[in-house]
Fold these 2 entries.
Entry 1:
Amino acid sequence: MARGQVIYDEGEPPGVMYRLEAGCVRLQVNGEDGDRQIVAFLFPGELFGFCLDRRSTSAEAVSEVEVTRFMTRMVLEKSVARPDVVVELINRSNALFGVLAHHVEKITHLPAHERLIWFFNWLLRHADDARAPGVIELPMNYRDIADFLSLKPETLSRALKQLEDTGYLVRRGQRTVVLRQACVALPLRAGDRLAATQADSATG
Amino acid sequence: MARGQVIYDEGEPPGVMYRLEAGCVRLQVNGEDGDRQIVAFLFPGELFGFCLDRRSTSAEAVSEVEVTRFMTRMVLEKSVARPDVVVELINRSNALFGVLAHHVEKITHLPAHERLIWFFNWLLRHADDARAPGVIELPMNYRDIADFLSLKPETLSRALKQLEDTGYLVRRGQRTVVLRQACVALPLRAGDRLAATQADSATG
DNA sequence: CGCGCGCCTTGACGAGGGTCAAGGCGGCCC
DNA sequence: GGGCCGCCTTGACCCTCGTCAAGGCGCGCG
């Protein structure tokens, strides 16, 4: 599927579920004013669209993507003989909820630059291509990141510059960021105040 | 269970799931700074806590509540013979995600007073005791509402006053609000600009 | 009956981020 | 190779909401 393609729209009746094989997909809610909130980025291996009444969000291709389609009904019928499939589906579904719950807590409580730090560390954990440590290839553009973190593109741009100026990261082109050592080593403390690292980076 | 009681904590291993029989339960994420984001209010009839790895959120009693406990494992084992149970669980799980997704879109894109209008209309639809139209009995205190809408209590208080001053609603005590006709009649247009109704209410 | 503690309210002030506007930069198509 | 378009950047300004501080109100307990 091509970049930008709508996989399904909110409100549609379902029937098909997907497994993402390659690329990146976003789940989003489209507001009435043209506003958009991205509630999840999905990476290879993840299942999505396994609902039974109505699509609660839209799904769109962030990059070129490859998916496998399944008839949801058939999967469930077979699952009667395969309890592990049921467990898997419920686990995945709950995981989506849990990740979103934490996402909400972050984007509503952190200032812009800390949302970004959290986002990059999250990417490192969930979409790591395992190349050089701290190097992140972004599959999405800045607009998508802004809508994920609930920021405007201008604010995102400024926060990014601020992080670069304080030595937190380096940008290589628009689709690659390199996190500095201190940040890579502290993936669990992404919420820390930026100020704590300013002294370090000033000397670097 | 008494008001304020912790039903389970984030991170705990599960084992038991619940059906809410009476009262109101909140699902929440507790931030590191003591900040709290409430991601869902649950009302009678709803299932919660049916996860299999770790609790992704905490659950606490908003009011006095009555719940039925089930062994999650047993429910799933029985469900092998009952596909409808599986369908039900997956539906519920997806519904939670969908509701939260829309919740996020609202609290990140609407100003304080519109979040409140949306919240009240949401309560009317989901927790309606079917008494007089537009009358809402709040099971939770202002702090809970603030944490649900991602506002500070002060801002909530001010927004509430603003809505009262513009004639959008009337407060009877601290736990009852009465929505005006124009608002009750437009549950789907909760996102409208407040200004549109100011002229109306000024004459009322 | 009165005191005290939570919860809500109100005011003054400041900061972070949204808005508007314009400019740079790169990629793609012709 | 040149031009155009979309995406990102930068600046100036303003507005909403958060913060700090103090006061009111009601409920429960002594």
Entry 2:
Amino acid sequence: MESEHRSGAANARRGTPTHPRRADAERNIAAILAAATSCFAKNPNASMTEIAAAAGVGRVTLYGHFSSREALLSELMERALSEVATVLEATGLDEGPADETLRTFIRSSWQLLDRNLRMLHAARRALPAEAVHDHHVGILSAMDRLITRGRQEGAFRDDLPAHWLVSTVYALVQAAGDQVEAGRFTSEEALDALDATLASALRRP
Amino acid sequence: MESEHRSGAANARRGTPTHPRRADAERNIAAILAAATSCFAKNPNASMTEIAAAAGVGRVTLYGHFSSREALLSELMERALSEVATVLEATGLDEGPADETLRTFIRSSWQLLDRNLRMLHAARRALPAEAVHDHHVGILSAMDRLITRGRQEGAFRDDLPAHWLVSTVYALVQAAGDQVEAGRFTSEEALDALDATLASALRRP
DNA sequence: CTTAACTCAAACAGAGTTGTTCAACTTATC
DNA sequence: GATAAGTTGAACAACTCTGTTTGAGTTAAG
């Protein structure tokens, strides 16, 4: 029941990170994370058994590194979203015209998102709502800040609440990812469509 | 394994609708459908036991009317989507300016969608992809027809593929529903925001 | 009021899951 | 090459879910 949000590391039961991990352990953890991302993308209900097999690792080893299914999903979500957050920071949230900044951000984080959208979807529905919110809060609040600035500058519409604009962005990114998944768009086409649609959806009328 | 798409009726094993159903059976079926909608909205993984309890019937009775969990979900989706399809037809797909028609359609089907979005989400993920597609095909193709006409008339943008515009509508409706669910919008606010956002997202640039 | 339709609780079989323990084996690392 | 860290399959307990059967009880409908 207690949230073990010792984020960033894959320490299952050790309270303190203890010392360095052995090289093969490190390798296995990487393999598990990759396999899990791919498994959850294919099937949101993927079992620990499937994931261990896909990672080429015994089930016991999997539990050795991630104490529960939930811990694994939480770690996956944490990593994916913090990658995006890093890109967000690197974009320079508070500089340049807000609409240009958003555009740049979307473009530079698209590959990341495209790769992880389905896994994130799985995590979102298997994790308690509160945990999901915690993981998102960084990105969402940064987006909110960017959009709010854009409204003040006149680049974005202010006839609708900022939170709605944020979730518009969120929803359209999802939709673009789904189209790629369904084979109706290539990744590049999806990005272009997303870009064009966001531009007109957010611009002041 | 065989798809029993004898849609519209809740006949579990009877091949032919045989004769009328008894009044109490009819009543229970209605209670089950209502309870299931509400249960799946709260928890996409709701079990048959939960649903039977919520409907105030025995589990055996539930299985008596719906031969499997899948059959129940399929019936729910069928009913919800055909309600929407009915509204779509009633809107007069091929008359008047396409943007006005879309607007009218969204407005008149919003309550229906708002009520059922979460249940539909649950059904969508529990049913085989093919079945989901079959249920949607009516609405999606009608939407596609409307949007294609709108593009020819110059009301909607034609710099992006029609299927993308359709899924933009779909995604934003979802997002609006989620905002209501999250308590950040009332149903009316969400509808207004949806309306305004769709207008600018679909208009030609 | 009689019959056929319907309901129900309890109990069952079967399949899947999660997470743990054990005892032997392999591999990094110093 | 010794030792500690890491891995492994097998087996286990506990649980949840699905779908079915049974036999007795209830209720609508003619």
